[in-house]
Amino acid sequence: MEFQGFTRETSDFLWELAFHNERPWFLEHKEEFLRVLKEPFDALAQALQGEMSVRHPEGEWNVH
Predict the structure, then answer these.
(1) How far apart are alpha carbons 10 and 2 in whole angstroms?
(2) What is the reported pLDDT for 51?
(3) Mean pLDDT score of the chain, rounded to an integer?
(4) Distance CA 31, CA 63 (A)
(5) pLDDT tens digits, residue range 11-38?
(6) Which residue has the higher pLDDT, 46 or 60?
(7) What b/e sequence results for 42-63 when a residue is b if at least 16 CB atoms lie within 10 Å of its CB, and e otherwise?
(8) Are 40 and 6 in contact (CB under 8 A)?
(9) Pair 40, 4: CB distance under 8 Å
(10) With left for phi above 0 and alpha for psi between -120 and 50, is residue 50 left, alpha or beta?
(11) Which residue, 7, 57, 58, 61, has most beta carbons within 10 Å?
């Protein structure tokens, strides 16, 4: 998945989480979490790691 940015849905999820920060609510919304927050964040992390590998191949941050 290529990072496309975070959406309004991501923002809405985080606001809801702030008001319902308990396990039962989260478990009910886990699929939404994966779709709107985790998947885009993982794509962002992967894109940044690729960019950092190109710019700083000797960097200690590299986790390969």
Answers:
(1) 16
(2) 79
(3) 90
(4) 28
(5) 999 999 999 999 999 999 999 999 999 9
(6) 46
(7) eebeeeeeeeeeeeeeeeeeee
(8) yes
(9) yes
(10) alpha
(11) 7
**Nearest to 39, CA basis, from 17, 15, 7, 16:** 7
Q: What is the DSSP string of 7-42?
A: -HHHHHHHHHHHH--SHHHHHHTHHHHIIIIIHHHH
Token pair listed for 21: 């920060």
The token pair at 45 is 């992390």
Residues 6+ positions from 46 with CB-CB distance below 8 Å: 3
Contacts of 48 (CB under 8 A, 6+ apart): none
